[in-house]
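From the pipeline queue, job 12 of 40. The input is one protein chain; the requested action is below.

Action: predict structure.
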Amino acid sequence: MSQNYPIGTPGQPWGEAEKQQWFAAQRKQRDYGNDVVRRIEHLRELFQVDSYGELNYAEARFPLFVVRNRNWNPKLPTALVTGGVHGYETSGVQGALYFLETEALNHLAHFNIVVAPCLSPWGYETINRWNPAAIDPNRSFYPHSPAQEVALLMAYMQEQGLAPQVHIDLHETTDTDNSEFRPALAARDGVTHDNWSIPDGFYLCADAKRPTPEFQRAVIEAVKSVTHIAPADAHGCLIGSPMVQEGVIHYDGKGLGLCMGMTDATYVTTTEVYPDSPNTNPVECVDAQVAAIRGGLEYAAKHLPK
């Protein structure tokens, strides 16, 4: 059911005063430098680490990093992994880093690898879906984006001439989607949102314009060895969208400004882990993200044109 939110007037979109009130209520709860940057620095022994900009907010600055293989082979396709588009989604960030630490080198015979582990450091530290301006980065992947997190990465991709053939974007669906983030979204926009049932398990959001069902199936099969796949709800849906095959729904990536719509990759998907399930734990959630990347890359290596 719909929930009231303590900021704003029901039915009226937020103005600048309400956004500032929301921002003032946020608090740092973990440290990007220790949790993320420290691990990226350790990766310099094996990978090229590029700084692609800095988020400059009033209270803090956050350097942004991409990790990529050193000996770039222009004859190979490129695979992009993104994490932390929604900073609060922990296993997306930790999964991207753990993939680099344990798996990425295994795929360099078939791909150039590019990983942006944490697009939204402020969101990571304050456990937020939005950035400080109450903008959702994962609805802002379009030209002249108002989200710094998005604009800086898109500029880097363009400057580097990166055109990935595979893009795997790492996310979570959490209980706080219903308790905090959807009510906040409804309040910000002055509308009503009914809460959805949070799927218990892993699932994928594929691009409706590039569905690639066999690729999605390969990712699901890889994850099955690590954690459980979310069943459809009583209406045959996951988060309000019809389940088109086991553990898979469709969204319009480019139309909604999603990260998975940022490129024209042949194979693209968004992972969704449910860390609040009683049937999983934080380590398993990270392992599921890595398994998803592995399954996607192994499939793409066999099916992309040589």
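Job complete. Residues 20 and 190 are 16 Å apart (CA to CA).
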